[in-house]
């Protein structure tokens, strides 16, 4: 249906164009004929005026010389007008075809007849002028004038017939133009209206089909959205194949989702079972570590007291004490590890001044080997107040300071620098040791800062700093290691939370 309407619309438009071109050519043709006929009328009117004015003026001129000159002028004007008339008549025949050409060809004899009549009238006029010199002028003049009048009447008759024909042609051509324009308007308007109706009908049908197609698409999409079977689209719908592909993919996704959901439920159940078992294992491990630490503390204290009570003061005694102290530290680390896993590293938060806390730690560590090789400096931007657990912060600073004391000496003391910024307080602890090749992994458990360590101290220190809203950064200075501990000012901890 749409293709039929499109063909009809194109045919109507083509017909309108062809009709316009044909009408233009016909109007041009008729207009040219009118122009030719009008020129012929003008030439005939010129010839008529010459016949009445110049011919009779020359005949009636008293002066013979002027009369002869007037006849010569009439001859020139008449011949010129006749030449133009013959040319226009021949040109007019080029505009007509068929029966019209046969009718118009009869006009070719009229310029010849006019020429002959004009020549005869001219001779009669010259005869009248010449008779003025004759002795018996009356008898000859009467005959000559009658002959001149007869020739003039012949010319007038031919000119009148010629004018009537040309004027008739002008009227006929004008009426033909008017009728042709009227018919052209009717047909042109009809074809344009037909093309417009075909175009509007095509748009209406396309819009109707598109609306139907859209409704089918919406029903199909709604069915897919609600997981219901959908009717297939029309094969002529350009989205039919895509819709079919989407439908198949949705079904495949639904099957995959069902399988995934089932597998996820199975794995979730397995993970819950594993989590329960891991929780039981972790609880057993923490309980074991705590019981082991507490069980070993008393025997180790007794062993150290017994060794100190020995009267022997030699290297063996110092070696035994060092071994007992090492085991004691490892037991303390085990207890801290159990407490860290249990989330009990921080016990009580209070307002602390770091200068006072570090001074106390330095004073207590003076009894340790190299303990008196510690320096504390500040940037005079105190007080350096923070909020935190004093015992937890003490363990954090002790873990880092004890590691650095191994490389402290009188020439390269362990340096503690205290500085304050707008929101944080930074404690920098620097040693003059060989540096740290492990990088940031020293904060991981089971990675020891020095040979023979447990690998728990620095991991515990980083956890305590993070629980205070701060962080620890390890920097290799090239001449040792530096730990930068950043903690929030008092009050900033709560704002961050």
Description:
- It contains 11 helices and 7 strands.
- The protein has 3 domains: 202 residues, Alpha-catenin/vinculin-like (Four Helix Bundle (Hemerythrin (Met), subunit A), Up-down Bundle); 106 residues, Orthogonal Bundle (Helix Hairpins); 149 residues, Histidine kinase-like ATPase, C-terminal domain (Heat Shock Protein 90, 2-Layer Sandwich), CATH 3.30.565.10.
- Strands 2-4-5-7-6 form a 5-stranded mixed sheet, covered by helices on one side. A two-stranded antiparallel ribbon has the order 1-3.
- The chain has 497 residues and is α+β, with helices and mostly antiparallel strands.
SSE diagram, text form:
Blueprint lengths: L1 H59 L3 H30 L5 H7 L3 H22 L6 H89 L14 H70 L5 H27 L8 E4 H12 L8 E5 L6 E4 L1 H15 L9 E7 L3 E7 L26 H11 L3 E6 L4 E8 L3 H5 L1
Parallel strand pairs: 2-4
Antiparallel strand pairs: 1-3, 4-5, 5-7, 6-7
Helix pairs in contact: 1-2, 1-4, 1-5, 2-4, 4-5, 6-7, 9-10
Q: Give the ordered list of helices and strands.
A: HHHHHHHEHEEHEEHEEH
Mean pLDDT, to the nearest integer, reads 76
Quickly count the helices.
11
**Structural class, from secondary structure content?**
alpha+beta
At the fold tier of CATH, the topology name of the largest domain is Four Helix Bundle (Hemerythrin (Met), subunit A)
Q: Provide the gyration radius in Å.
A: 66 Å
The CATH superfamily title of the largest domain: Alpha-catenin/vinculin-like
Give the overall silhouette: rod-shaped
Low-confidence stretches: 449-454
Strand content: 5-15%
Distance from first to last alpha carbon: 74 Å
Question: From the 3D coordinates, which CATH architecture of the largest domain would you assign?
Answer: Up-down Bundle
Summarize the biggest pleated sheet. Answer: 5 strands, mixed
Q: How many discrete structural domains?
A: 3
List the strand order in the largest sheet. Answer: 2-4-5-7-6
Number of strands: 7
CATH class descriptor of the largest domain: Mainly Alpha
Tell me roughly what share of residues is in helical segments: 55-70%
């Amino acid at each position: 249906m749409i293709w039929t309407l499109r063909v009809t619309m194109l045919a109507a438009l083509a017909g309108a164009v062809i009709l316009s071109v044909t009408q233009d050519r016909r109007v041009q043709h008729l207009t040219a004929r009118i122009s030719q006929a009008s020129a012929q009328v003008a030439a005939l009117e010129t010839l008529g005026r010459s016949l009445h004015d110049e011919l009779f003026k020359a005949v009636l001129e008293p002066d013979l010389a002027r009369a002869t000159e007037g006849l010569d002028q009439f001859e020139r004007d008449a011949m010129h007008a006749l030449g133009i008339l013959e040319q226009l008549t021949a040109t007019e025949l080029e505009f007509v075809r068929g029966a019209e050409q046969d009718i118009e060809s009869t006009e070719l004899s009229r310029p010849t007849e006019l020429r002959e009549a004009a020549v005869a009238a001219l001779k009669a006029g010259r005869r009248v002028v010449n008779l003025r010199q004759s002795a018996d002028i009356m008898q000859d003049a009467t005959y000559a004038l009658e002959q001149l009048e007869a020739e003039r009447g012949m010319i007038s008759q031919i000119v009148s017939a010629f004018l009537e024909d040309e004027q008739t042609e002008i009227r006929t051509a004008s009426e033909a133009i008017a009728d042709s324009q009227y018919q052209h308007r009717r047909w042109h308007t009809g074809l344009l209206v037909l093309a417009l109706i075909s175009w509007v009908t095509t748009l209406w049908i396309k819009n109707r089909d598109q609306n139907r197609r859209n409704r089918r698409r919406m029903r199909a999409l709604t069915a897919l959205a609600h997981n219901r079977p959908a009717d297939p689209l029309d094969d002529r719908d350009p989205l039919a194949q895509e819709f079919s592909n989407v439908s198949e993919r949705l079904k495949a996704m639904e099957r995959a989702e069902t399988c995934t959901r089932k597998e996820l439920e199975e794995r979730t159940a397995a993970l819950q079972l594993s989590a329960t078992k891991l929780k039981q294992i972790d609880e057993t491990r923490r309980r074991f570590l705590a019981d082991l630490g507490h069980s070993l503390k008393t025997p180790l204290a007794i062993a150290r007291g017994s060794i100190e009570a020995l009267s022997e003061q030699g290297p063996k005694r110092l070696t035994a004490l060092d071994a007992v102290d090492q085991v004691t530290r490892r037991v303390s680390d085990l207890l801290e590890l159990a407490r860290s896993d249990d989330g009990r590293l921080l016990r009580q938060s209070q307002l602390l001044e770091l200068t006072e806390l570090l001074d106390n730690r330095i004073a207590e560590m003076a009894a340790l080997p190299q303990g008196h090789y510690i320096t504390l400096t500040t940037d005079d931007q105190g007080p350096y107040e923070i909020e935190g657990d004093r015992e937890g912060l003490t363990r954090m600073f002790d873990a880092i300071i004890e590691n650095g004391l191994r490389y402290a000496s009188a020439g390269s003391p362990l340096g503690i620098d205290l500085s304050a910024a707008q929101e944080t307080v930074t404690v920098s602890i620097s040693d003059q040791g060989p540096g740290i090749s492990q990088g940031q992994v020293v904060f991981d458990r089971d990675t020891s800062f020095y040979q023979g360590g447990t690998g728990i101290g620095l991991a515990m220190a980083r956890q305590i700093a993070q629980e205070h809203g701060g962080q620890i950064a390890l920097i290799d200075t090239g001449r040792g290691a530096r730990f930068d501990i950043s903690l929030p000012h008092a009050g900033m901890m709560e704002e961050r939370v």
